[in-house]
Amino acid sequence: MATVTIFDQMKKEVGSLELSPEIFEVEVRPEILHFVVRAQLAAKRAGTHSVKTRAFVSGGGKKPWKQKGTGHARAGSNRSPVWRGGAIIFGPQPRSYEFKVNRKVRRLALKMALTSRLLEDNLMVLKGIDMPEIKTKSFAEIVKNLGLEKALIVFKEADNNLLLSARNVPGIKLLPADKINAYDVLLYPKLVMLENAAVSVQERLK
Length: 206
Hints:
Part of the 50S ribosomal subunit. By secondary structure, the chain is α/β, with parallel strands linked by helices.
């Protein structure tokens, strides 16, 4: 069972926390991580691309010329896909790119992502972050003290002062413990979890 040090916001050791081997000692399989991340990115796609088929191009109701005797190839509409200004054949239409991922697979991928952060020594647990007022400069100083450049900070309960102070700090993202996912964990090199959030994540994934 792995044990991590708990730091305060000044990066002083204040305790330790035992991590569940069921969550932080899982075999990391890249193909599962890839599948889950691809599914999450696919679900974010708008899928609003669209072109006009013959059903949607205006005009073309009249036959351009008679069928025989002109020397031209026969034509029934000036909005044919082979004409300039015509329709598009088999062009993209609005669609959803989502595909199903089983809940067990999503949970397994999250455990793998958390395990990888622990193995890489990129997991930090904080006692908490105290923000008595909304001040970006104060939060930026805390980030500097902790040595963070690009990090995902996971919290259990929303602190309005913390959320508003952190929203304009580049490279830092705050995420509720119940919204933690494999993609965000892998996207940010450093994973910072507040102590109560770490406990909450372990309880949810057991």
